Amino acid sequence: xxxxxxxxxxxxxxxxxxxxxxxxxxxxxxxxxxxxxxxxxxxxxxxxxxxxxxxxxxxxxxxxxxxxxxxxxxxxxxxxxxxxxxxxxxxxxxxxxxxxxxxxxxxxxxxxxxxxxxxxxxxxxxxxxxxxxxxxxxxxxxxxxxxxxxxxxxxxxxxxxxxxxxxxxxxxxxxxxxxxxxxxxxxxxxxxxxxxxxxxxxxxxxxxxxxxxxxxxxxxxxxxxxxxxxxxxxxxxxxxxxxxxxxxxxxxxxxxxxxxxxxxxxxxx
Length: 269
Known about the structure:
Blueprint: E1 13-14, H1 21-25, E2 34-42, E3 51-56, H2 59-71, E4 75-79, E5 93-94, E6 96-107, E7 113-128, E8 138-144, H3 152-177, H4 185-190, H5 201-212, H6 219-227, H7 231-258
Parallel strand pairs: 2-4
Antiparallel strand pairs: 1-5, 2-8, 3-7, 4-6, 6-7, 7-8
């Protein structure tokens, strides 16, 4: 049986129809880490540090991206609706998202826009801007990082376990699918390569998101990984994903080896 999930906090979502949100949380929308940014609801999350190519064809988001690129400002990517589709996808968004910066911008002849974006920092939506004159959502958001760990050594142990399991999964995947893939630059640049070297919590957080960017998981887990402020819990959740992937790939490799590496029709004359 599968182990119980590590990240059990419910996914937070924000709806402009929520009563009292604006008054209770953003009576004066100014404070530490609070900014007004445009939001782009999509069907995915973008971990901090990850690259995210976008093909933008809707006029309001073409206007938004052009303005952000021209002014060198960020916009926020939030998952549209609730991962379990329990709320209105057009108006409700997951409350935790990532501010991204446009690194590359290309305008096509027919008006569509191609951008390469980079995740910068997570935020929590406080409230949509009232009396918004823009065709796209603008929201007051508060930026945040992970909380200081209760047990830094536990974080260091989890980092090493995740890195070892990620390398195992990559090796098995290359064997099963006859590929020669390698770890991403972001993973290698943030990984705990030297076991004896001291690690900062900022490095651990960056490594956890570099790994999150390469994992293929469902929408709800994507959002939970982004939302949690517990670095060690995020690493443990990803360790579960990697352990399951390793079991599957190891079984697949054993079956293929048993049939001499043949695939469809293996063992048949």
